[in-house]
Amino acid sequence: MRGEGLFTERAPNGRFQWQLKAMNGRVVAVSAAVYESAGDAERAFAELLALGPALVARITHVRDGLGWTWVVPGARGNPLVKSSRAYERYATCQNAFRRFMALLARLSEAAAVAGGAPGAGR
Question: Can you give the CATH number for the domain in which 82 is found?
Fold first, then answer.
């Protein structure tokens, strides 16, 4: 499936989480938390979208295995959003976060033009 934007899905525990996909259909980022409903997941994403340029990633080495991941910590240190996968190189992980931020900015601009709701698929 191709399409850019926000997608909500049911997590293995029956709750919901969101994914942000690039135009080629590749998952760019996922919610770090799970939510009671798809609406709660979408509201959490809208809050993240509002933070926009203020987001800063923490890039860390994967504990078990090879690679690097990025995570955006929230106000209390709990992760808000994380990379969808591990990257072999540190620089590739940095670039993946930059692509996430660019996609977030594009969705924010589109939401402002459309009147509020971020681009969403399901």
Answer: 2.30.29.80
Domain membership flag for residue 120? no
Most confident of 21-25, 87-91, 109-113: 87-91
Under the banding of pLDDT at 50, 70 and 90, the label for residue 75 is confident
In a domain, 122, yes or no: no
CA angle 93–118–112, rounded 5-degree value: 110
The pLDDT value recorded for residue 21 is 93
- Tally of structural domains, the chain: 1
Q: Is the pLDDT of residue 115 over 80?
A: no
Helix (H, G, I), strand (E, B) or coil at 7: strand
Element (H, E) at 67: none
- Confirm whether 121 is domain-assigned: no
What lies within 8 Å, CB to CB, of 35 at 6+ separation is: 15, 16, 17, 41, 44
Identify the domain containing residue 101 by its residue range.
5-112
What pTM was computed for the model? Answer: 0.84
DSSP 49-65: HHHGGG---EEEE-SSS
